[in-house]
Q: What sequence folds into this?
């Protein structure tokens, strides 16, 4: 990840900014806040999830925040899930109605509207952004966007929802995270800890004031797979025990099937059900144990519906991980997360 593509030298925080972001600095440190201040973030589409991401990222004090949203007009359905909007905005271009409200959130952030279309943006050979976040995208758009971000070595987050359910896809390409933790009975060791994670550096330190406290300072290399490959190769074989496989959330195969063709639920429910069986086979899970009929019916009926609480959870998770990777302080999400608004479970799957 390139820390600051437009500004090779980190921007420093003034005393007024340190005072303004004091609580955040206490939480994640001055270095992380400085990295946030230097970063350029692009959000594609500012619907329900995008609204939550916008609020969190702008309030965090990001240096430059851009939005590409040039094809959406406010509808009455939007009013129930997007807090920037009012009834007076119905029928107007969405970005025009909210731009002043975004600036009001944090005038210190350099906010801009990306005037390119989605197609023109991804046709460019380079990117001026340090992180790209996509919402409200079709399968083909996600694949195209992911190709563009990978060709520019730019981290990508994609999030979407379907009623009470949602997902987050993360592609940081390759990312080294730094963690400091108390040493447990089972000590960490150099080498692979999963197919996509490897500890490449390990330093043990002793607390000078409390010698019984031994810390491990770890550098972990995280590798990611592109979205298109994930859809084709995602499997749980060899990753979970038989007992765990029986308890896998039905939202996982439902969401992966939906992402294989984002129009299938609305255009051909019978085909969606058939493909759902194929996805279970690919994941190596038993559909008779996993696919609860009430979940399948609810997932289909809620196609295209946005709920504010779900958007808040997903938007908050994406925003927090963006802050984490800018500070390089914690393990990032790797690489596919689902949210079940019925059980409130939010498991992470490494594919």
A:
């Amino acid at each position: 990840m390139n820390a600051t593509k437009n500004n090779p030298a980190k921007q420093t925080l003034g005393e007024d900014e340190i005072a303004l972001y004091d609580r955040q600095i206490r939480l994640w440190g001055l270095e992380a806040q400085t990295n946030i201040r230097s970063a350029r973030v692009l959000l594609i589409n500012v619907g329900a999830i995008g609204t939550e991401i916008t609020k969190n990222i702008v309030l965090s004090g990001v240096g430059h925040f851009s939005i590409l949203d040039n094809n959406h007009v406010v509808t009455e359905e939007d009013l129930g899930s997007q807090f920037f909007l009012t009834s007076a905005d119905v029928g107007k271009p969405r970005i025009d109605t909210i731009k002043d409200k975004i600036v009001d959130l944090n005038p210190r952030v350099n906010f801009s509207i990306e005037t390119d279309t989605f197609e023109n943006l991804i046709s460019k050979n380079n990117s001026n952004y340090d992180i790209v976040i996509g919402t409200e995208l079709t399968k083909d758009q996600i694949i195209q966007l992911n190709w563009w971000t990978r060709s520019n070595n730019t981290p990508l987050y994609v999030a979407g929802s379907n009623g009470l359910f949602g997902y987050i896809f993360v592609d940081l390409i390759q990312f080294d995270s730094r963690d400091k933790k108390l040493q447990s009975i089972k000590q960490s060791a150099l080498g692979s800890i999963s197919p996509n994670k490897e500890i490449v550096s390990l330093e043990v330190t002793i607390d000078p004031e409390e010698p019984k406290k031994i810390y491990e300072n770890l550098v972990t290399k995280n590798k990611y797979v592109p979205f298109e490959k994930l859809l084709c190769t995602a499997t749980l074989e060899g990753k979970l025990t038989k007992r765990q496989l029986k308890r896998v959330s039905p939202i996982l195969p439902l969401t992966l099937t939906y992402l294989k063709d984002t129009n299938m639920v609305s255009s051909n429910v019978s085909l969606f059900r058939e493909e759902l069986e194929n996805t279970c086979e690919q994941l190596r899970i038993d559909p008779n144990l996993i696919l609860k009929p009430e979940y399948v019916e609810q997932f289909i009926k809620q196609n295209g519906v946005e709920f504010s609480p779900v958007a808040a959870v997903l938007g908050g998770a994406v925003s927090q991980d963006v802050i984490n990777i800018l500070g390089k302080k914690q393990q990032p999400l790797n690489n596919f997360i689902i949210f079940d608004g019925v059980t409130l479970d939010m498991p992470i799957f490494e594919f």
The longest helix spans residues 308-327. The CA atoms of residues 321 and 332 lie 6 Å apart. The chain has a mean pLDDT of 90.
